[in-house]
């Protein structure tokens, strides 16, 4: 079910894979920081893909520019927002009416930045381990569409206490799920994260 495809972001060609399930609802999964080894095959990314596929959603993941076989080079979040837009455009043109945006770590930041630049969008947003202790997340700025945040209770890059302080500013209606025993990598806790995401998808 996992099919390789390419996406076009201006002159950048992005390596991507799509797990086709439903033809009306899909999720885009954004990966962690490419300069620290993050890519679309990351374990958390795959847990998110599997969570959506389990609920019958199509799931699209891709490598940001300069990662894997994607052309171009790292652009500190600016060009990466264009990469995300290309994934959104691909799914919209394919007829998907509902498109969730789910990002892990750096991918969460890219989605938050994109959302703030496109405030009238209609996407539901899920953020996993937004690294508020590593990147400036604009803790008092709204993130339109934000529904749920997931974090490990041992995560020093995305400390739950700091996220709780920011959450009312990001989205008063959003909720946070804390995965006990998990750090930023969620190693050993992929299943717990996946189960929490599954409950959110159609909840």
From TrEMBL:
Transmembrane segments: none annotated. Pfam families: Hydrolase_4 (PF12146). GO terms for molecular function: hydrolase activity. Residues 43-165 form the Serine aminopeptidase S33 domain. It comes from the Bacteria. PANTHER family: AB HYDROLASE-1 DOMAIN-CONTAINING PROTEIN, ALPHA/BETA-HYDROLASES SUPERFAMILY PROTEIN. This is Alpha/beta fold hydrolase.
């Amino acid at each position: 079910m996992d099919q390789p495809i390419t996406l076009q972001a201006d002159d950048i060609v992005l390596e991507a894979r799509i797990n086709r399930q439903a033809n009306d609802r899909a999720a885009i999964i954004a990966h962690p920081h490419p300069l620290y080894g993050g890519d679309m095959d990351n374990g958390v990314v795959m847990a998110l893909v599997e969570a959506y596929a389990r609920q019958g959603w199509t799931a699209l993941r891709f490598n940001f520019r300069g990662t894997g076989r994607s052309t171009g080079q790292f652009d500190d979040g600016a060009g990466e927002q264009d990469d995300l837009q290309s994934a959104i455009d691909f799914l919209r043109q394919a007829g998907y009416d509902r498109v969730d945006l789910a990002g892990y770590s750096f991918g969460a930041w890219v989605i938050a930045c994109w959302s703030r630049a496109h405030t009238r969008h209609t996407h539901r947003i899920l953020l996993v381990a937004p690294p508020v202790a590593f990147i400036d997340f604009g803790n008092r700025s709204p993130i339109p569409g934000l529904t749920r945040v997931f974090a490990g209770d041992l995560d020093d890059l995305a400390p739950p206490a700091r996220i709780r302080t920011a959450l009312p500013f990001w989205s008063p209606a959003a909720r946070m799920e804390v995965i006990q025993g998990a750090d930023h990598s969620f190693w050993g806790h992929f299943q717990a994260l996946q189960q929490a995401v599954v409950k959110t998808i159609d909840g």
